[in-house]
Write a structure and sequence with these properties.
This protein has one helix at 3-16, and strands at residues 20-22, 43-45, 48-50, 54-56. The protein is α+β, with helices and mostly antiparallel strands and 76 residues long. The two termini are 20 Å apart.
Length: 76
């Protein structure tokens, strides 16, 4: 997923009030600060284990400080 695609997805999720966002398997190296706009998120998936494919994740080494704005987040 390109940075522009990710920003568009975040924009759409914010406008539509998504409570869950699955970003696993997109080979992301950076999570943009715009993620902080998704204050309604309850679940943010950055990686998961699939029985068939194994671990499906990203290449993130850190999370932006704006992740702290996701006060409704119950699962990361």
């Amino acid at each position: 997923m390109t940075e522009d695609e990710l920003l568009q997805l975040i924009k759409k999720a914010a406008a539509e009030g998504w409570e869950e966002l699955d970003l696993s398997g997109n080979e992301l190296t950076v999570l943009p600060p715009e993620i902080g706009k998704l204050t309604q998120l309850k679940k943010l998936v950055l990686g998961k284990y699939d029985r068939k494919d194994g671990y499906i994740g990203n290449k993130l080494s850190e999370l932006p400080k704006e992740i702290g704005l996701l006060t409704q987040l119950e699962e990361l």
